[in-house]
Write a structure and sequence with these properties.
The chain is mostly beta strands. Among the domains are: 90 residues; 260 residues, Rossmann fold (3-Layer(aba) Sandwich), CATH 3.40.50.1820. It has 9 helices and 36 strands. Keywords: Aminopeptidase, Hydrolase, Protease, Serine protease. This is Dipeptidyl aminopeptidase/acylaminoacyl peptidase. InterPro entries: 6-blade_b-propeller_TolB-like, AB_hydrolase_fold, Peptidase_S9_cat, WD40.
């Protein structure tokens, strides 16, 4: 079966899986990979974990999300904008009769919710109602009326919503109730923006019965994934956050003993990175990015206990309260993500089949690649060969696709996406190299932190070392090399063509070309400043970020470049692409510049995703001649 652009973008993927406490049912949301209208229409589904029989519930044309079970497994709460598109409200599904009831009618909608054990209440996260403004008054005063998520309490029996007078003007990020039905752990930030907010986290305890609050102090940077557990010394509260002191660093699990107030890093020194921390009635479970694969660990008092190893990428961990049954989203090299269930020690059994249309596809052979950097550092990545070939059929035209982040990774899973992806190019006759250079996830804190202020340095030579290996082994044709990437991968593509003429074609998607400009205008300014090493307000210069910005080397570029960018991108604003376009035009470099209206950092509209796929392949076909 030929792999067409429509097959890629018209799929649906499971999201937000959540096991019922009794383990008999699992709810998840089926989400399309592209959008055709103003809203994304999703489906709420229930799966019998024993028989894998699946059914659609809550019939409606709506965006439905965040399913949560009641403690007795008889009721499913979820968000839906069926009443007013774009404004999600809390709904309740009673399993006994299948009846769906809307529980809230807040003008600003509901952001998240948590059914509370033993209290008959649901905790809500919702912004304040929009303030009344005079007609035609659309002036924005920065700092005034900025949205904040507030903690609210809903009594489903009466529909009454109250807002406890707590946390002052802080933005509430996450809630987690103690397993015994006790107080709520609450994570707040000074504001909702991604530039300042992640550095201002604080932890609190909130008693929904008395309404009292206890401040537990500051949390580490970018804290998330709260979890409780009881130790011999009392209750502990854990979370995942960046390892001090930097913003570009590996993640760790931090453990706060509430009685003593002592906090410690429970995953220090491990050669892998925690991605999810999940609460049970006993010791919490942790998912780790472990090289190209994933490891599931129980966080015992004596230290992490490995429960199972899994090939590829696992995410969205959910468990029964006892932790004896788990469910995750997982796939394989040649199968997309689906819901899998089983015991923590494995094996896991697939209970959904969301992409049956791909069953007949012919995939390129995918294999792990292990090699050494120029300085001897152990590295890994993936090699995908043209569909229907083996390595002995080489050399092939090779497209290298660095990943984004840079704190991300390639896991050994199906590489098929709307952006430049390995299987999409492999179907057209290309070999594709997916490197995991330093700065990424899966190899611990030091590996991740090594690019702070040094982007484009060692991480780029890491990529080159892999390309050189593939050329030496006769897999890559040195005269037909291309490079492509999105976000930080786009940065590395732009960096590459300013430092070598080896590539015959390049694609820069939503890429960074000037770190100082990005620190000043991107939504994650402080994070970008940590990567670039400085900001424009760091004195008169020259600045360290100039030396690691691709725009500084634009006069050296000779490679044809395809530039793709979303017009409404707030992560890497489109001005970055305009800057590169103007530089290439100034120096007379062949290039094509495409802007996608209404799109952010990720391209969502169906016809735009199709354009990315077709344009990507056409660009490399013309210049690399597969």
């Amino acid at each position: 079966m030929p792999l067409t652009p429509d097959l890629v973008v018209d799929g649906r993927v499971p999201r937000n899986p959540v096991l019922a406490p009794n383990g008999r049912l699992l709810a998840h949301v089926l989400t399309p990979t592209s959008r055709t209208g103003d809203h994304v229409d999703t489906e709420l589904r229930l799966v019998d974990t024993g028989t894998a029989v699946e059914r659609r519930v809550a019939e409606a044309t709506a965006t439905q999300s965040r399913p949560r079970w009641s403690a007795d497994s008889t009721t499913l709460f979820f968000l839906s904008d069926r009443a007013e598109r774009g404004t999600p409200q809390l709904h309740r599904l009673a399993l006994a009769d299948g009846r769906v009831t809307r529980l809230t009618s807040l003008d600003a909608g509901v952001l998240d919710h948590l059914p509370l054990t033993d209290l008959g209440l649901v905790a809500l996260l919702a912004e304040d109602e929009p303030a009344a403004r005079p007609p035609h008054d659309d002036v924005i005063v920065v700092g005034e009326h900025e949205p904040r998520a507030r903690l609210r309490l809903l009594d489903p029996s009466t529909g009454r919503v109250t807002t406890p007078d707590v946390f002052r003007d802080r933005h509430v990020v996450e809630l987690r109730q103690r397993p015994d039905g006790g107080p709520l752990a609450v994570l707040t930030r000074a504001g909702a923006d991604d530039d300042y907010g992640p550095r201002t986290g604080r932890l609190h305890l909130f008693d929904p019965v008395s309404g009292t609050v206890e401040d537990l102090g500051a949390a580490e940077i970018d804290a998330r994934s709260l979890a409780w557990w009881r130790g011999a010394d009392g209750w502990h509260l854990g979370y995942i956050a960046l390892t001090p002191p930097g913003l570009q660093a590996g993640t760790a699990v931090f453990d706060l003993a509430l009685d003593s107030g002592v906090q410690r890093n429970r995953t220090s020194g491990l050669p892998m990175c925690p991605t999810e921390l999940h609460q049970t009635d006993g010791a919490p479970l942790v998912l780790f990015a472990d090289g190209l694969n994933t490891t599931l660990v129980r966080l015992d008092p004596t230290g992490p206990t490995v429960l199972s190893h899994h090939p590829g990428h696992l995410e969205a961990l959910t468990t029964t309260p006892t932790g004896e049954l788990i469910a995750v989203l997982a796939g394989t090299r040649y199968q997309p993500e689906d819901v899998h269930v089983g015991p923590p020690a494995g094996p896991l059994r697939k209970i959904t089949d969301t992409r049956p249309e791909l069953h007949g596809a012919t995939w390129g052979l995918q294999q792990p690649l292990v090699y050494r950097a120029a300085d001897g550092l152990a590295l890994d990545g993936l090699l995908v060969l043209p569909a229907g070939t083996t390595a002995s059929d080489g050399p092939f035209p090779l497209v290298t696709i660095p990943h984004g982040g840079p704190y991300d990774r390639y896991a050994d899973r199906l590489q098929l996406f709307w952006f430049p992806s390995a299987q999409w190019l492999a179907a057209a006759g290309y070999a594709v190299f997916l490197p995991n250079p330093r700065g990424g996830q899966g190899h611990g804190h030091r590996f991740a932190a090594s690019v702070a202020g040094r982007v484009g340095r060692e991480e780029w030579t890491d990529v080159l070392a892999g390309i050189d290996l593939l050329v030496a082994e006769g897999i890559a044709d040195p005269d037909r090399l291309g490079i492509a990437g999105w976000s930080h991968g786009g940065f590395l593509a732009a960096w590459a063509v300013g430092h070598t003429d080896r590539f015959r074609a390049a694609l820069v998607g939503a890429g960074v070309v000037d770190w100082g400009m990005l620190a000043a205008t991107g939504e994650n300014g402080q994070f970008e400043a940590a990567l670039g090493g400085s900001t424009g307000w760091s004195g008169t210069g020259p600045h360290p970020h100039d030396a690691v910005s691709p725009i500084s080397f634009a006069d050296r570029i000779r490679t044809p470049v395809l530039i793709l960018h979303g017009a409404e991108d707030t992560n890497v604003p489109v001005g970055q692409a305009v800057y590169l376009h103007r530089a290439l035009r100034h120096f007379g470099v062949e290039h094509e510049f495409v802007i996608y209206p209404r799109e952010g950092h990720s391209i969502r509209e169906r016809h735009h995703q199709l354009d990315v796929l077709r344009r990507t392949r056409a660009w490399f076909d013309r210049l690399l001649h597969p």
